[in-house]
Structures are given as C-alpha cells and as structure tokens.
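Q: My labmate handed me this sequence with no annotations at all. I'd like to see what the chain might look like in three dimensions before we decide whether it's worth expressing. Could you predict it?
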Amino acid sequence: MLRTMVQVEQTDMLYLKLQRLNYITFYMTAQGEEGVQAGCAAGLEDEDWVCMQYREMGVCLYRGISLNEVAHQIHATRLDPNKGHQTPLLFASQAARIQTTSPPLGTQLPHAAGIGYSLRMQGKKNVCLGLFGDGASSEGDAHAGMNFAATRQSQTLFFCRNNGFAISTPSTEQYAGQGVAERGVGYGMPAVRVDGNDPIAVLQATKAARAEVLNRPGPVLVEALTYRRGHHSSSDDSTRYRSQEVTQHYETVDNSIMRFSKFLQLHGLADMDLEEVRRKAAGEVKAAWEEAKGTPLPSWEAMFEDVYDQPTPELLQQKAEFGAHYRKYKKYYDEKVLH
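A: Here is what I predict for the chain of 339 residues:
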C-alpha cells in the first residue's frame, strides 16, 4: 500500500512538471488522496470489478497496471492499450478488471450498478467497486446508479472519495446535508463514513463493506473524507478559491503517506526509510517516462479502430478521406512539433 501511495505521489510530481513544460497536454494530480486509493484497492479481491473516475491512478497501480503502462497511456504512444483514444489518466485494463474510464462525472455509476447486478444474477461472490468524487455525487447518474443498484440488489460497493471540492465548488455549496454517506438511508442501503487520510481505516471499511454487499446481498455506500491538496487539474488554479494555510496543514500534518509510514514504523511492521522509498519510486517513474517519451505515436489508422465492433460505412468513408489528406500533407504530421 505504501509503495503504491508513493508511486502516485512521485508520478504526480513528475508529470505535473512535464505538463507545465508542454511535454503532455493535460494532467490531474491525486495529491492528498493517495491513502484513499491504496486503502480501497487493497480491500478488494482480484476478481472484483472497478468502475472509476479520472483520479484513481493508485487503484490501477495496486491492481497491477505498471508504471510503464501509465506512462504510455499519458503520452498516448503506440504501446498505449487505448491506442491514444483517451486523454491522460483515463485508464482501462481487462487484466485488472478496470472498466474504461470516461471523463463525464458519474457515468460510471450506472455501469457499476449493472455489473453488480450481473454478478448477483451469475451467483458470483464478487463485487463491482463504483468510485466517484463528491462532485459526481451531485450528478443525476449518481442517483440513478445507486437507486438502480438498491432496487435490484446489485453487488455494488459505491465508494465516494469526498475531497472537499468539485473543481472550485466546496462541499458546503454542493449539498445542505452532512455529506454523502447519509444518502444511503434514502437509497435503502447501509452506509459508513471513514477517515480517508487513514489508509488502514479505509482498508478496513472497504473490506467490511465488501462483506456486507455479499451477505445482504445489495449495495453499500462508503464515504471517505479526504482533502485534494493539488489543483483540480493542470488547467485549474486552486489558490483563487481556497486557503493555502489549510492546504499546508494537509501536506505537513494530516498527510496520508506520512501517517501510514509512521504507523508502520511505530508497530514494527516495516523497516524502511520513507525518503529511500521515495527515491526508489522517483527513479522508477522517471525510467517509465524515459521509455514512453521515446516511443512513437500510434499510426493514424488507430484513430478509426475500436470505435464500433464493425466499422460503419460512414467511418470507412472518413478513414479514406483522412488517408488522402494525410498522404498529401504527411511531412507536416511527421515533423511532430510536440514540445
């Protein structure tokens, strides 16, 4: 868990700098939410499914997606499993049982309800984790997904990482209630709120919620309270709408990596130096980036692949038209003036 959390931290540090240097177009950090990601991922079984948002890199790493795969996805290289179809951080993996991530908020929750329903109908002892943020909880898809799961007794574990902000909108302006967990009563499902900056608490809550989903059967809602220290994305400036003193507190005091590291050392569960773990992770992240930045981009034909199960006549026409355009202006594309 700590290794995953530090890998997320170091990946965020490097790629935010690379975005500022125009090596990549866009990035979203998970600063402050590393413990939520590692804790909920550790509470799952390998055969469970995951439907998530765009700020869950730690879940991907914990479930087996490598740093090299992450780097190739961010750079949209020829080795990107998504073939460059997705913007950075929208992961997908059949091996890790992670459904394709979509940028619109909340759309993954009806999918999570449907997968959970399918698991119950098949009699499988697995769950689908539906990950979302507090901002997504205000979307209609969140209501539809949770209500569907409750009425169909879907084996779905809804997990809200409440980081305090929906871009620049604080939680206090999103809802008048005390949070997201209390909505479980209205949907007819058990709910629990947990300290999201305590990875052990998140792990225990996830494991208990997973067991409850399978025992009922039916969905359970978990809300992990954390704090998004970074900007919403590389296009955001969070200094415009919140206090930096509060952000500093979550960086130096209520920091999930620091808390977890001290917990492991205090109880004799790990003999390691946190800074050494960070140095090792930084080296791994940099090596993955070095490989990805030297890898060619996908061929232009990949743009037309995997759009439909079978290409439509319109898609084939578009492919032919772009092929003619590309052959005419090929030298301009091959210059690759990206940086």
